[in-house]
Every structure is written in structure tokens, then in C-alpha cells.
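Module 6 notes. Inverse folding takes a fixed backbone as the condition and produces residue identities as the prediction. Think of it as a translation problem where the source language is geometry and the target language is the twenty amino acids. Below is one complete input and output pair. Work through it position by position during the lab.
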């Protein structure tokens, strides 16, 4: 299927979503499962906009990545609560099963991954995923879609997270790595507290950590990078300086100064 056909299949529109599940994912974040009967499906990496309307008509909308990537009408999101945020505290603390939301999507053309199809050729480049914080959500969708598809492309995920308690999709990532027929290697970089016996002290991703925990430029990986803006900008600069082809780097910024 050509890219243009896929865009036509997954054309963005407004939909009414009903919350069918809301469970804590980590301290400060919540997994939301939405039932959207009119959803056209989406590729891994896509996002949607949620629009909230107050009783006085005031509206606010924010983008959220879709953790699920299938031709299904149940969508999984994970929302991290920003203490002084306008929308995320409502989604994390107030939203209840049965509530309805306006959602617009699926959105995103550049930051998408789908299993190789016949037209893609036999030899695809390896895929390096790099995420920080809630930036893991679209990358998880890609890793899970890769594992489920039986695709043999090499995948490697570098996940920067403050401590083990704040890992999103802990169980699902381990399962995806186990059942993936092709390689799916996961590197956790703990920034504040590492598990007992972890081989390295906690610390931020640095140029050296990046180089030692990612597919080298010589293998010409396609790179998907997602997280807070400063993280994405710093890591993209290091990747390019290390010799990665800028055309192979796809980045999504989640905001933040
Ligand atoms: C394509 C896309 C996909 C996204 N997917 C997700 C997702 O899956 N899960 C998720 O939790 N969020 C995701 N976000 C971020 C989300 O859209 C909101 O920005 C976030 O929930 C904050 O909204 P708010 O209304 O609570 O805060 P706001 O009222 O918008 O912002 C409050 C303050 O926090 C800063 N800020 C905003 N976002 C961040 C951030 N991520 N980190 C640090 N500071 C920030 C703002 O600059 C502002 O100063 C995504 C963003 C984009 C663009």
C-alpha cells in the first residue's frame, strides 16, 4: 500500500470518544482507554488532539500520542500530569469511566512507523527509538507494532526515565522484547535513581551514553526521537554531530522550556 493510500484510509476527523478505562500508569500519570466507534485506525506513532470545552464555552486542546496501533476502535493513551498544566491534571485526576471527549485524529505523517510492505524492498534500515519521559508513548506503539507484525528489522530503544517507578509500559515492553521475532533491544537510562545492582550510576543522557546505547551511524538507522523539547534538541544535535544522516532523524517535541 502506498503512503498516500494509508493517509486516505486514516483520514483525520473529529470523533466522540467514551472513556472505558482509566488506571494509574506511574505516580503522576494515567493510562486512558477510549472507545471511538468511528475511528479509522492509525499507524504507530500517530497522535490525536483532545478538545475540552468548559461550561462557559472556553475550549482547550492538547495533543496525545496513541499507544495502540491497530485497525481497532479502542485507543490507549498515557497522560503525564504537569502540576501547573491546564489540561493534563483534568485528564489524570478528574476523568471518569463513561465520560465523553472530543478527539481529532489520527494525526501525524512524518512520525509514523508501519511494518514493511512489499513495495518497501527486502533490506530496510535498522530502527533506533530514543525517548524521554512521556515521549516513550509513540515509541512504545512502534516497538509493539514491530513485535506484533513479525517484522525482522533490527529495533533498539533507548528510554530515559527518572527511576524504575516511572517506567511506562514496563510489562508490555518486556513482553514485546520477548515475543518479537526480530531483535528488539531495550536500554533504560535512569536519570535519578537506578534499580539495585544496576551497572551504571543514575545520570542524564550524555553524548557518550547516547553513542554507547544506540545503533551507530555506520549502520544508517532510521531514528525516531521523542520527549521534552530540550531533550529532543540536544539529542538531535549529538546525533548529527556523530555522523547520522539528518534526513533519517524524525523528531517529535512534547513541549516544555
Ligand atoms: C504530538 C504530541 C504528542 C504528545 N503526546 C503526549 C503523551 O502521549 N502524553 C503526555 O503526557 N503528553 C503528551 N504531549 C504533551 C501534551 O500535548 C501537553 O503539552 C501536556 O499534557 C501538557 O498540557 P497541559 O495543558 O497540562 O499543560 P500547559 O498548560 O499546556 O503547560 C504548562 C507548562 O508546562 C510546559 N510544558 C508543556 N508540555 C510539557 C512537557 N511535556 N514537559 C515539560 N513541560 C511541559 C509548558 O511550556 C507550560 O509552561 C504531546 C505533545 C505533542 C505535541
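Target side of the pair, the amino acids:
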Amino acid at each position: 500500500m502506498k503512503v498516500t493510500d494509508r493517509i486516505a484510509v486514516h483520514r483525520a476527523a473529529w470523533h466522540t470518544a467514551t472513556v472505558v478505562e482509566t488506571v494509574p500508569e506511574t505516580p503522576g500519570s494515567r493510562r486512558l482507554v477510549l472507545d471511538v466507534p468511528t475511528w479509522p485506525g492509525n499507524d504507530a506513532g500517530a497522535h490525536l488532539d483532545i478538545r475540552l470545552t468548559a461550561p462557559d464555552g472556553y475550549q482547550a486542546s492538547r495533543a496525545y500520542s496513541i499507544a495502540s496501533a491497530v485497525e481497532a476502535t479502542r485507543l490507549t493513551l498515557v497522560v503525564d500530569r504537569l502540576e501547573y498544566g491546564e489540561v493534563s491534571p483534568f485528564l489524570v485526576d478528574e476523568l471518569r469511566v463513561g465520560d465523553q471527549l472530543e478527539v481529532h485524529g489520527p494525526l501525524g505523517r512524518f512520525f509514523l512507523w508501519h511494518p514493511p510492505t512489499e513495495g518497501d524492498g527486502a533490506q530496510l534500515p535498522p530502527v533506533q527509538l530514543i525517548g524521554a519521559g512521556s515521549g516513550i508513548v509513540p515509541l512504545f506503539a512502534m516497538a509493539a507494532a514491530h513485535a506484533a507484525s513479525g517484522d525482522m528489522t533490527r529495533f533498539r530503544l533507548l528510554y530515559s526515565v527518572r527511576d524504575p517507578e516511572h517506567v511506562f509500559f514496563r510489562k508490555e515492553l518486556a513482553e514485546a522484547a520477548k515475543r518479537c521475532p526480530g531483535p528488539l533491544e531495550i536500554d533504560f537510562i535512569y536519570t535519578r535513581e537506578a534499580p539495585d545492582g544496576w551497572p551504571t550510576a543514575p545520570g542524564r543522557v550524555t553524548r557518550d551514553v547516547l553513542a554507547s546505547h544506540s545503533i551507530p551511524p555506520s549502520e544508517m538507522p532510521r531514528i525516531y526521537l521523542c520527549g521534552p523539547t530540550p531533550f529532543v534538541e540536544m539529542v538531535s544535535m549529538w546525533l548529527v554531530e556523530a555522523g547520522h544522516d539528518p534526513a533519517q532523524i524524525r523528531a517529535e517535541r512534547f513541549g516544555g522550556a
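Reference fact for the lab report: Residues 136-149 form the longest helix (14 residues).
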